[in-house]
Amino acid sequence: MSIETQIRAIQVLGYSQQEAQFLRLVALHSGYFVRRQFLRHIGAQRGKRAQDFIDELIGRGHACREVFREDRHLFHLQSKVIYEALGEEDSRNRREHQPATVRLRLMGLDFILEHPEYQYLMTQEERLSYFFEQRGIDAEALPARFFRSNGKLTTRYFPDGFPQFVDARNASAVSFVYVEDAQLSADAFRSYLRNYRNLFEAVGVVDLVFVTTSPDRFVIGQKALARFWTRARERAPQL
Fold it and tell me: Can you tell me the mean pLDDT for 188-206?
């Protein structure tokens, strides 16, 4: 399903094109958003339009309001109708998540809103299609988590849900975004690097974007990444 088709499908539910574009981003990436993110998307500081949009969302049963930290209002796009319009009715973004996960999702959405020029791999299907068909990378190289439900083993690739994007001018140039929450242990980044090691080695040239609100944690991330690449070179076969 093309981006244009997805946007039109949401417009049919009663939203403007700008609103439908925003809802698509939220549904496919985060499932959650805050008011300032919608205002950023439409290029406004404040005003009645944001409140009207939120009232419509909640009134139609497409989203619910939650109270986040410091009495901050958060909106969860949980209606199956929205996700069905996108062809993603089984999306995990409909589910409720822990505050730590929500923070990471919101930061990831911020990155996407700040960089609309990138071509994002939004869903698991898009990512698998890219790495399997365009890059010829084996499934064993992809980061994955395994779940057992009703006696059936299910594989979920890229379980972190962080943004990934490609250069529209060069399909082989893929970028990975790591979203760092200063309230979590710095070991999380090291774990991320271990989980992605095989994929990074298969891709060859990697562009890794480290997103954080803490300058100190950025320095820690730089050091962890330097150690990771040093060890990766040591493991590489000598010709």
Answer: 90
CA–CA dist 76, 83 (Å, integer): 13
| pTM of structure | 0.88
Q: Tens of pLDDT along 209-225?
A: 999 988 888 888 888 88
CA–CA distance, 202 with 195 (Å, rounded to integer):
13
3-state secondary structure the chain: CCHHHHHHHHHCCCCCHHHHHHHHHHHHHHCEECHHHHHHHHCCCCCHHHHHHHHHHHHCCCCEEEECHHHCEEEECCCHHHHHHCCCCCCHHHCCCCHHHHHHHHHHHHHHHHCCCCEECCCHHHHHHHHHHHCCCCHHHCCEEEEEECCEEEEEECCCCCCEEEECCEEEEEEEEEECCCCCCCHHHHHHHHHHHHHHHHHCCCEEEEECCCHHHHHHHHHHHHHHHHHHHHHCCCC
Q: How many CB atoms lie within 10 A of CB 218?
A: 15
The answer to whether residues 164 and 127 touch, using CB atoms and an 8 Å cutoff, is: yes
Q: Which two tokens stand for residue 17?
A: 């094109």
CB count, 10 Å around CB of 37?
20
